[in-house]
Amino acid sequence: MSILIVGTVAFDAIETPFGKTDKIVGGAATYISLSSSFFTKNLNLVSVVGEDFPESSIKMLQNHNVDIQGLQIKKGEKTFFWSGKYHNDMNTRDTLETQLNVLETFDPIVPEQHKECDFLMLGNLVPSVQKKVLDQMKKRPKLVVLDTMNFWMDNFLGDLLESLKEVDVLTINDEEARQLSGEYSLVKAAKKILSMGPKYLIIKKGEHGALLFNNKEVFFAPALPLEDVFDPTGAGDSFAGGFIGYLEKTNDISFENMKRAVIHGSAMASFCVEKFGTQKLEDLSNEDVETRLKQFIDLVQFDISLV
Ligand code: AMP
């Protein structure tokens, strides 16, 4: 079993009510890789950076068992850059700037030995690039998960709708679900989105948890109430990494197991937000993850007798 991850590897500049960073390393694929590395050792990355990207950050990914053969390093070009500012509620943010840089001409090449990965994580990226990766797979992966955001809905909706026809699980936040479906009710939005192709939909609601839908059922997982949230950047990607990492580890893609995967995703997201950037995920131990999963179990378990 193994996971192929595609998505941005980036520089971010983040502003929250608690502080501001200069350019730090981020990107959807970075967070996904770090998060899933706590559940599996078989991680393969397809992405692109410029020559300004630090060697030490590539080493950091390798130290988390990420195979970087599919990471292109473009001489004389600049890494994708994103900057964002969070509102006081820390749940919503504005994108201040998106510089595509190397992404503008990115032609992903999946290394031969990774074309038969069973789990494919199409992290946030140009929708046509996500599709190109899927098209290079030798056999249909057992599970294809796609994450995207409003930026791509605004600019490349047609391409995104094409990709959606081919994925199993779509993960987006509540605002994006409303934008994609044109429905305010998340239940109605889910119905509409499930008719666009995905068999499962996960709607992330920040500090209000996450919903997992299929055509018949719905499951809700809360977010862990945290004393301090410093930086929500990457929470959605850390969620996706924990989700797919757990499914790969257990090799079970039933709805019942996806519920457990949602809890694992929520646990990883809860770590991510406790420090700026990737810091917390980089420093985490397996024991920390186990302890937090137990906190989740305690948070949601209760006895009730129906009379
Ligand atoms: P999240 O907070 O989970 O939505 O993801 C934040 C990460 O997404 C940051 O590290 C950014 O580098 C990356 N990002 C921001 N905008 C985009 C975009 N349009 N496409 C891909 N990745 C992006």
Brief summary of the model shown:
By secondary structure, this protein is an alpha/beta fold.
**pLDDT average, as an integer?**
96
User: By helix and strand content, what is the structural category?
Assistant: alpha/beta
Biggest sheet descriptor: 9 strands, mixed
* N-to-C span: 46 Å
Count of separate DSSP helical elements:
11
Strand content: 15-25%
* Topology as a string of helices (H) and strands (E): EEEEHEHEEEEHEHHEHHEEEHHHH
Q: Rg, please?
A: 18 Å
Enumerate the distinct ligands. adenosine monophosphate
Biggest sheet: strands side by side, in what order? Answer: 6-5-1-9-10-11-12-13-14
Q: Shape from CA axes?
A: globular
What's the total count of β strands? 14
Uncertain stretches of 5 or more adjacent residues: none
Percent helix: 25-40%
- The assembly state of the depicted protein chains is single chain
List keywords for this structure.
307 residues; 24% strand; binds adenosine monophosphate; 5-stranded mixed beta sheet; 14 strands
